[in-house]
Amino acid sequence: MIEEAQLLEQLKSKTQKNKAFKVLLELYKDRLYWHIRGIVKSHDDADDVLQNTFIKIFKNIDNFKGDSKLFSWMYRIATNESITFLNKKANRLKISNEEVQQLAINNLTSDIYFEGDDIQLKLQKAIATLPEKQQLVFNMKYFEDLKYKDMSEILETSEGALKASYHIAVKKIEAYLTQN
């Protein structure tokens, strides 16, 4: 497997950028897709956001300073693109972000790409009741099994704050699942 430093060097090279970008796409598209899908819920929306994410990565790779891992930088872009997408959707539909989330959850049952059962759907409904930051932290820890250190780089928050957010999110989800 190609080293991150070598891939980064190729991405910043005018002659190797396109070839290196194809490698980057293969390495990260599935992980980024599922990260985005966890936020926006819909397959079609996740595809759109993923495409926008990779366009932004391609256009801005020269600005990547290496202060964090390339993976963390891309996840941050994917997260921001997902949140921007949800905000735009809420504005377009003239509803709150919470209502956009609820709409997405309600549409999961008709989404041919959603393979979850009733329990998965109930879990998604519980997650949708959380504040945005807790949703992100819960999804990244529970579904993606990211380490707090990586999440800290992606979300630019301390590990302690992330652990607290995750703990609170779990308690709220347990309460929701018990009551519903």
From TrEMBL:
Family under the similarity heading: Belongs to the sigma-70 factor family. ECF subfamily.
Protein name, UniProt field: RNA polymerase sigma-70 factor, ECF subfamily
Domain RNA polymerase sigma-70 region: 24-90
A GO BP entry: DNA-templated transcription initiation
InterPro entries assigned: RNA_pol_sigma-70-like, RNA_pol_sigma-70_dom, RNA_pol_sigma70_r2, RNA_pol_sigma70_r4_t2, RNA_pol_sigma_r2, RNA_pol_sigma_r3/r4-like, WH-like_DNA-bd_sf
Any one Gene Ontology molecular-function term assigned to this protein's record: sigma factor activity
CDD domains referenced in this protein's UniProt entry, alphabetically: Sigma70_r4
Protein keywords: Sigma factor, Transcription, Transcription regulation
Source organism, top-level taxon: Bacteria
Sequence ranges assigned to domain RNA polymerase sigma factor 70 region 4 type in this UniProt record: 121-173
